[in-house]
Structures are given as C-alpha cells and as structure tokens.
Amino acid sequence: MNNVAAFKSTGDPVGLVGIWRLTLVGSGLFLSRCCDRMMRFLLLFSRQGKLRLQKWYTPITDREKKKVIRDMMMMVLARSPRSCNFIQWRDLKIVYKRYASLYFCAGLEEQDNELLSLEVLHRYVELLDKYFGNVCELDIIFNFEKAYYILDEFLMGGEILETSKVAVGASMEEADTLQETMEEYMSKPAY
Question: Residue 12: pLDDT band by 50, 70, 90 thresholds?
C-alpha cells in the first residue's frame, strides 16, 4: 500500500518551488513533484518490434517493465496507420506517434493532457533531429547514450525540464566538448 504525503515548498534557492509528493513504496521513499503532468514511461521501438530506448519515471519491477513493453508493442504495432494516437490501457493513457520507422510511445496518468504529450514527443524528435541532422533509427542504435542525454536534458521525472531547443543544444555541445577533451587527454601517454 502506498502512503502519500504532500507538502509545499516556497522560495527555495535550489529551485524546488512547488508542491511535492513523498511516497512510500515498499521499503523506499520517492519524492515527486505534484503537478498536472506526469509521464510514467517513454518507449521508442521500431516497426519490427525492437526496443530502441526506454525511460521509466515511476518505480516498477523489471518483470512488470517487460510486460508493459510487450503490451505496448503489441497494441501499437497492431493498429492501422489511420487510427487515433491515443489508447486507454489499464489506468493509463497511452500516447504514441510514428516518425519514419520508429514509434515514440508515452504512458500518462489519467488526468494528463494527450495533446500536450504529443507535443512533448514531437519536441523530443525535433531535438534529436537538431543534434543528429534528420535522425534515423541507426542514430538511436549507435548513439543511444546521446539520445538518453538529450532526453534527460529535456525531461526530468516525467515532466518538462527545458523547452528551449537552443538551451538543450548548448548543453549537448558542452557535453560533446567535454567528451572530446577527455578522450584527447586519455589518449596522450602518461610519462
């Protein structure tokens, strides 16, 4: 059974202003922001049913994750291209969108806005396009750590962290520069 306590934080210099939820799940405590939007998970998979990226914003077991992934793939891939992009599944709303050979699928809570979630998925694709230059499935496969980094710069805890493509792009440039510097440093002989 989940025990939930909500509290309000104001004027916090760390940026924790808002209403927060402290949840006891099993033997662990989880802190999450109480707001209108809470994405439970984000999945990217191909038309052939290969999982390319997964991000979970709520704690669930590995067994349950595998079941959710299997169910999402079966439901979404079985739908005709002209079907609605929204599915009701268990206690969640499923929002998906196909871009080229990849399906972007998000699980939302009941009160979340489906159209806003479609915009979030589209913004993530725009960020990937900006970084990779017309992103394709192979970019995700061979540079999955970059795809996760972009996602983490854009979403945190299932909520939008940064909406600016410029700010996320600048963060990616800084990360790439740091990585190149470290690779250059590590390749030099140590005398």
Answer: very low
What one-letter code names the amino acid at 33?
R
For the cut 80, the answer to whether the pLDDT of residue 191 exceeds it is no
Query: What are 42's two structure tokens?
Result: 């984000």
| Closest C-alpha among 140, 138, 173, 167 to residue 154 | 167
Could you report the per-residue pLDDT of 122-138, keeping only the tens digit for each? 999 999 999 999 999 99
What average pLDDT does this structure show over 152-176? 90
Q: CB atoms < 10 A from the CB of 152, how many?
A: 13
Among 7-11, 42-46, 145-149, 172-176, which is the least confidently predicted range?
7-11
Q: Rounded to an integer, what distance in angstroms lies between the CA atom of residue 4 and that of residue 29? A: 10
Looking at the whole model, is its pTM more than 0.70?
Answer: yes
Distance CA(98)–CA(73), nearest Å, equals: 12
Within its chain, how far is the Cα of 76 from the centroid?
18
Which two structure tokens, joined as six digits, stand for 176? 């790439």
How high is the mean pLDDT of the chain?
85
Reported in sequence order, the residue ranges of the chain that DSSP labels E, i.e. its strands, are 3-9, 18-25, 28-33, 39-46, 51-56, 86-89, 92-99, 102-108, 155-156, 159-160
DSSP 142-188: HTHHHHHHHHHHHEETTEE----HHHHHHHHHHHHHHHHHHHHHHHS
